[in-house]
Amino acid sequence: MTGPSTGSPAQAAVLVEGLGKRFGRTQALESVSFEVKRGELFGFIGPDGAGKTTLFRILATLLVPDAGRAQVLGRDVVRSLWELRDRVGYMPGRFSLYPDLSVEENLRFFASVFGTTLERERDQIAPIYRQLEPFKDRRAAALSGGMKQKLALCCALVHRPEILLLDEPTTGVDAVSRREFWDLLGRFTSAGITIVVSTPYMDEANRCDRVALIQGGRLLAVDTPRAIAQSFDRPLLAIGVAADRYRVLVALRQYAHAGTVYPFGAVLHYTDARRDVPVNQVVSDLREFLRSSGFADLEIAETPATVEDAFMARMAAPAAVAGEAGHG
Amino acid sequence: MADEDAIVAKDLTRTFGRFVAVDHISFDVHAGEVFGFLGANGAGKTTAIRMLTGLLAPSAGTARVAGHDISRDSEAVKRSIGYMSQRFSLYEDLTVRENIRLYGGIYDLTTAQIRERTDRMLVRLGMTDVGGRSVRDLPLGWRQKLALSVALVHDPRIVFLDEPTSGVDPITRRQFWELIYEAAAAGTTILVTTHYMDEAEYCDRISIMVAGRIAAMGTPADLKQKFQVDTIDELFVRLARPENTPATERSS
Known about the structure:
The complex is a heterodimer.
Chain A: E1 14-23, E2 26-36, E3 41-45, H1 52-59, E4 67-72, E5 75-76, H2 81-87, E6 88-91, H3 103-113, H4 118-132, H5 145-157, E7 163-166, H6 175-190, E8 194-199, E9 210-215, E10 218-223, H7 225-230, E11 237-240, H8 245-253, E12 258-264, E13 267-272, H9 279-292, E14 300-302, H10 307-314
Chain B: E1 7-16, E2 19-29, E3 34-39, H1 45-52, E4 60-65, E5 68-69, H2 74-80, E6 81-85, H3 96-106, H4 111-125, H5 140-151, E7 158-162, H6 170-185, E8 189-193, H7 197-200, E9 205-210, E10 213-218, H8 220-227, H9 232-240
Parallel strand pairs in B: 3-8, 3-9, 6-7, 7-8
Antiparallel strand pairs in B: 1-2, 1-4, 4-5, 9-10
């Protein structure tokens, strides 16, 4: 493997240590440390308000941290901002292209800002531009959500950056367009570009080489998606429910041994509050309780935990829990 | 009238110039049902919802919402429904109590009704301590749960939820769905859109729109069996890209 033209291959693409940022009374980021390797597809997974956008703005040299330090491509984001801006591609979370310019005009504008031309960079953006070309004369404002994201990615790529910072590129985009977008990202990492991306969709974690779970300005975990899912440290049961999902859920709230019960697609994910009871005993107790509550023959099976299960297990419980917390 | 379906749409159509945004869609939503209204960006969902909420006149076809014709009686439709979305729901500069009072007033509730419902709502949501705080200062998840309750403040027969859980953390997202179930169990009809495909599985029935038409409709379990897929996500991908779907499996 040969590294990019500048910096040694062993050098991290991103190195962050003890990063903090506060806005008034809000601690947006607190003691955040992580490292992204060259060529990696690294994801930040977390809900709105977790601190993702603040972190991306710091990495993109647009915001100065209060504490700690951040290096991108071996350069300090505060001291070397002008050098970094030529080498970093940044796609902000909010759509930030010119709505009154056409697809092609937007691309030409961003190319010219970086002192190049669309013609010179056409091979770089070819895989995406092919999909945009039928709409090249359409105003950016009139594009569908998925197409807007592809155009924004094109504009972030047009100056051949060594690293892409994509802040929530798939938020609000439908499941199919999201899938296509991630397929595109895979192509760029295989071409050697490092990608740091954020998303609120937990299922997208599996598209990344490594992910950081982020909540309330802190990292909850940094690892491969598989290792994070496997870190879920207790037996997880899937209870098959159909139309009676809500009634089963309400019934299980009364079950003395219930730990957590969450709807998960077509099933409920259940953990037992008892740590020292073997799983087959847990299953038979649960089956007996459900039968006595009027739910016979529900399918119950042990199931592998997902990144989302692991995320919820690590999340600090929100203070106001609907219905249960009373005065929080 | 109480037994009538909450939504009855027949050949509902809307064109913009030569573009057919919604193309002869027909469907019923039963009272107390949680109906998932799915489709890719640009498939026509938003246009359909704007017609069903009385904000946009159809080019052809009809729909009755809460017993009122959307073309002839759009004002009555607006009074009978609730609406919330990720983008617009509450006024950030107003406090929690002020938001509830504002919406209660818009829907002609009495001062006594507003006071009683506000107290009940804040206890239910565990937000009694934050009634005097600006909505801006609340975490997103709280805001969205409050917005749903506010959309229900006038006891509408139907509530339209447009991507209500977008960007919400996974635990709060599930709490939000419990509020949806609770409203449905009390008889409110729910029409909800979402890009989280696991949430599609939480609905009693779903429809999937593709290019202005309803390409599939039914219970999640029936649809998975009919199309021989394991998840609604898989079904969605196949339908939303028709070129990948064998013609024999397309529902007419």
